[in-house]
């Protein structure tokens, strides 16, 4: 499941990149850093990314999740730091919902 | 490449639209400036550094109509009128304003079954408000109401995502913005006069199903009780409607000409008739070469052409040989032809007037003239035989729209290639000592309509020809010379002895340069100014 989730994350990166200016696009790789400060997603692009990812999870894996909440959007505790962290967090949410 | 300036004003976070507009995937390239969201009225009322550019003003009804949706219709109309006044006032300062029509995705299904009930449902009210807005904005020639509802439909069920709204005040998802970008860029192209003018069509498996040379016209798939035949007939109907709004049609096909023309004339289900086409090249030659010849004959530029062919190899050949020609990917499925045609955004027009409706006839009349030309020993005798009548008129309400259209569409015989909106033109003319004449031509073949413009400025004891524009249909008939004579006559009456014309070179206006070089005017090559001292 985790590999499938990672694949969906990469697809969401590609779509979010359409809204990112040249030089600020996120690398389409499993090692990509996502949210600031290490990654390139600022607050607006992070929202775009989260919504896009939620829609893709629903469409591709038939999984409905709320990725944005009080905990995840708090600086310091975010699971959106990189692809690996995010995929782990999504898999945890999926397991909890079973 | 030149970048077009565009400012965005919105009551929601419109950064995503800005990002997509800036992306270089589609012509033209756009430089975007975004006003802080939620300050629509302030932004419309105050000046802006990019005043001369395009403006997109995208609002939600909730933000600009305080009484929406629970007030009375009269109350809401008053607010729509006030908002319209602001837009109209702003339109005097910018090139053009694009206004996406109001949609209300926040209200969801509204009152459900009653949502379209007159005076009750939100959906019904929204329609009334948009119609009111459309009627009001008609007062300005450079404001265009855009069908945002179509963008929303195209984006599907995720067009509005409450999470985007609550977390970032983004009113639509990316798919709505992507559709909007396509239409906004098409609108900018149309306003800049870069819309396509001619569709060149293949015949076999494009206009009809089957190879006419093999199966004979009687056995072509066209109309009748056949799903593909019906699709071909519908595709032809769509093409005919394009022709009826001023887009020219022509044929380039590998066929025996007599066989193909027989099919066009004799097949009972042919929607398009021979006189719907301004020309054809039906032979076994190279299609790219045929297009070049045909387009040259019509006095058009290759950049005006769209080539439609079912055969990918022919499309690839034309695309490679003639990069200026738009060669859209074409579906293999015949039933998608009409949709593929209607999805093309390259034919958008700023106006449609009587001359557009008569355009094909005008070209056909031209062909008759040209055919006759060969039977005269000299051009002078041919011109004399035409009984040509040229009428000059000042700008008035009746010719304003056509004049604006010519300003924005004419490429080849165009001295300055100024692209002006109605308000820009009126502002320019409001300055004393400036004058503009329209040029209308008719002859014994018919009325060619308003096909030319001269504008001049009287300054420092000289007459400056600012605009010198003539439609390609009227070129080469010495109308240009008569236009120059008109200016000289005006200068004489004004007691002025110097007439000057500054040529501004573009990629497309070499015919204009050639005309001026052949005139009696002296050419100052460094400044590209043509001057004439009128003999006393």
Report on the structure:
The complex is a heterodimer of chains A (98) and B (536). Chain A has three helices and no strands. With 98 residues, chain A is an all-alpha fold. Chain A has a single domain, classed as Non-ribosomal Peptide Synthetase Peptidyl Carrier Protein, Chain A (Orthogonal Bundle). In chain A, α1 crosses α2 and α1 packs across α3. The radius of gyration of chain A is 12 Å and the shape is globular. By secondary structure, chain B is an alpha/beta fold. Chain B has three domains: 188 residues, Rossmann fold (3-Layer(aba) Sandwich), CATH 3.40.50.1110; 146 residues, 3-Layer(aba) Sandwich (Rossmann fold); 171 residues, Aminopeptidase, CATH 3.40.630. Chain B has 21 helices and 17 strands. In chain B, strands 10, 11, 12, 13, 14, 15, 16 and 17 form an eight-stranded mixed β-sheet that branches. Chain B has a five-stranded parallel β-sheet with strand order 2-1-3-4-5, sandwiched between helices. In chain B, a hairpin with a 2-residue loop joins β13 and β14. Chain B is globular. Classes of the chains: A mainly alpha (98), B alpha/beta (536). Chains A and B meet through α2 of A and α1 and α7 of B.
The rounded distance between the terminal residues' Cα atoms of chain B is 46 Å
List the uncertain runs of chain B.
none
Question: Which structural class do the helices and strands of chain B define?
Answer: alpha/beta
CATH topology of the largest domain in chain B: Rossmann fold
Number of helices of chain B: 21
- What's the order of the H and E elements of chain A? HHH
Integer-rounded radius of gyration of chain B: 26 Å
- CATH fold field value of chain A: Non-ribosomal Peptide Synthetase Peptidyl Carrier Protein, Chain A
Q: State the domain count of chain A.
A: 1
On the 0 to 100 scale, the average pLDDT of chain B is 91
- Major interchain interface with per-chain residue totals: A-B, 15 and 16 residues
The geometry of chain B reads as globular
- Percent in strands of chain A: under 5%
Main beta-sheet annotation of chain B: 8 strands, mixed
| Assembly type | heterodimer
Summed up, the helix count of chain A is 3
- Overall mean pLDDT of chain A: 87
């Amino acid at each position: 499941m985790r590999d499938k989730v990672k694949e969906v994350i990469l697809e969401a990166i590609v779509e979010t990149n359409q809204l990112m200016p040249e030089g600020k696009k996120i690398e389409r790789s499993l090692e990509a850093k996502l949210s600031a400060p290490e990654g390139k997603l600022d607050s607006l692009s992070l929202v775009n990314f989260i919504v896009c990812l939620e829609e893709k999870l629903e469409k591709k894996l038939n999984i409905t999740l709320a990725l944005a909440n009080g905990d995840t959007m708090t600086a310091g505790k975010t699971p959106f730091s990189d692809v690996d962290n995010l995929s782990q967090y999504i898999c945890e949410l999926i397991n909890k919902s079973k | 490449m030149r970048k077009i300036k565009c400012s965005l004003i919105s009551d929601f976070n419109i950064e995503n639209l800005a990002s997509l507009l800036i992306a270089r995937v589609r012509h033209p390239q756009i430089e975007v400036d975004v006003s802080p969201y939620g300050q629509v009225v302030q932004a419309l009322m105050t000046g802006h550094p990019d005043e001369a550019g395009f403006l997109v003003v995208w609002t939600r009804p909730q933000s600009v109509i305080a009484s929406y949706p629970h007030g009375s219709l009269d109350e809401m109309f008053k607010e729509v009128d006030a908002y319209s006044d602001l837009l109209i006032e702003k339109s005097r300062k910018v090139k053009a304003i694009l206004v996406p029509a109001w949609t209300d995705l926040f209200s969801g299904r509204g009152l459900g079954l009653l949502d379209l009930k007159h005076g009750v449902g939100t959906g019904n009210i929204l329609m009334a408000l948009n119609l009111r807005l459309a009627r009001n904005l008609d007062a300005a020639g450079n404001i265009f109401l855009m069908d945002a509802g179509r963008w929303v439909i195209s984006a599907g069920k995720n067009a509005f995502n409450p999470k985007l709204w609550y977390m970032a005040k983004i009113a639509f998802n990316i798919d709505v913005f992507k559709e909007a970008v396509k239409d906004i860029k098409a609108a900018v192209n149309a306003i800049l006069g870069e819309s396509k003018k001619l569709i060149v069509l293949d015949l076999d498996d494009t206009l009809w199903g089957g190879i006419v040379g093999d199966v004979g016209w009687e056995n072509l798939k066209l109309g009748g009780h056949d799903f593909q035949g019906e699709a071909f007939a519908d595709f032809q109907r769509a093409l005919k409607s394009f022709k009826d709004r001023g887009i020219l049609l022509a044929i380039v096909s590998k066929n025996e000409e007599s066989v193909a023309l027989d099919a066009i004339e004799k097949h009972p289900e042919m929607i398009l008739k021979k006189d719907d086409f301004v020309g054809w090249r039906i032979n076994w030659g190279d299609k790219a070469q045929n297009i070049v010849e045909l387009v040259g004959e019509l006095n058009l530029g290759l950049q005006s052409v769209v080539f439609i062919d079912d055969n990918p190899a022919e499309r690839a050949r034309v695309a490679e040989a003639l990069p200026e020609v738009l060669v859209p990917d074409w579906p293999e499925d015949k039933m998608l032809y009409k949709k593929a045609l209607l999805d093309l955004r390259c034919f958008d027009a700023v106006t449609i007037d009587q001359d557009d409706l008569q355009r094909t006839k005008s070209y056909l009349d031209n062909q008759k003239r040209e055919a006759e030309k060969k039977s005269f020993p000299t051009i002078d005798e041919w011109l004399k035989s035409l009984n040509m009548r040229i009428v000059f008129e000042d700008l008035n309400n009746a010719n304003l729209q056509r004049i604006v259209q010519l300003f924005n569409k004419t490429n080849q015989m165009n001295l300055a290639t100024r692209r002006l909106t109605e308000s820009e033109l009126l502002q320019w003319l409001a300055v004393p000592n400036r004058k503009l004449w329209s040029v209308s031509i008719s002859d014994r073949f018919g009325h060619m309509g308003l096909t030319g413009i001269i504008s001049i400025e009287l300054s420092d004891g000289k007459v400056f020809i600012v605009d010198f524009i003539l439609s390609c249909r009227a070129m080469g008939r010495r109308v240009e010379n008569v236009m120059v004579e008109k200016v000289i006559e005006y200068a004489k009456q004004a007691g002025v002895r110097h007439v000057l014309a500054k040529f501004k070179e573009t990629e497309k206006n070499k015919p204009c340069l050639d005309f001026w070089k052949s005139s009696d005017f002296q050419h100052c090559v460094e400044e590209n100014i043509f001057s004439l001292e009128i003999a006393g």
